[in-house]
Amino acid sequence: MIGHLKGRIINKNPPEVLIEVEGIGYEVLCPMSTFYELDNLSEDILLFTHLSIKEDAHTLFGFITKDEKNVFRELIRVNGVGPKVALAILSNLSVSSLVQCISTEDADLLAKTPGIGKKTALKLIVELQDRLGKLELSGSLVSSKEFKQSSNPNSRQAIEALQSLGFKVKEANKMVSKIDDQDLSTEQIIRLALQNK
């Protein structure tokens, strides 16, 4: 398995880059986010890689950060999402945007990716919510589990009340987490949460 490549870029033709490492040229497919980052680098670059082996091809996928590589690997574990679709998702959304999109269950934003329909977007959200929360992502990313927990005991009741009004768990959590005052009653929290929505 090839874990990473360090060398210089010989040629770029989106989404493929040709990187020379000790006299050997590797063709690597990259998401557009990585591709744009490579414009700013003139010296040797380091790409974290994932090798996909199929009957008819061995394909290297390259990423500027380990987070991109880890999220890519989680994406291709979802049934029906192949490496090319995962690459399209990471080209359309940054890692932090994707994590945010999954945690807030924003299927519409995910479905804007070419090759992703509403059905696949919903499937991605269901399958990735727990897995992305467990991933050790560096950077200033918001994990899907990291909604601010309030110390106000009424917050929990407010979240449950919002759910009974038809809001999803993540949405209710997000609405209540925006409220800072710890001395509010359950009714006041609900009212503010609905105003801030």
* Superfamily (CATH H level) name of the largest domain: 5' to 3' exonuclease, C-terminal subdomain
Number of domains: 3
Query: For this structure, what is the CATH class of the largest domain?
Result: Mainly Alpha
- Overall structural class, as computed from helix and strand content, comes to alpha+beta
The tally of strands reads 5
Give the distance, in angstroms, between the N- and C-terminal Cα atoms: 47 Å
- Using only CA atoms, what is the Rg? 21 Å
- CATH architecture term of the largest domain: Orthogonal Bundle
Order of helices and strands: EEEHEEHHHHHHHH
Report mean pLDDT, rounded to a whole number: 82
Assembly annotation: single chain
- The tally of helices reads 9
Please state how the strands of the largest beta sheet are arranged side by side. Answer: 1-2-3-5-4
- Largest sheet entry: 5 strands, mixed, barrel
Query: In percent, how helical is the residue content?
Result: 40-55%
What fraction of residues sit in β-strands?
15-25%
In CATH, the topology of the largest domain is named DNA polymerase, domain 1
The stretches of 5 or more residues where confidence is low (pLDDT under 50) are: 140-150
Shape: elongated
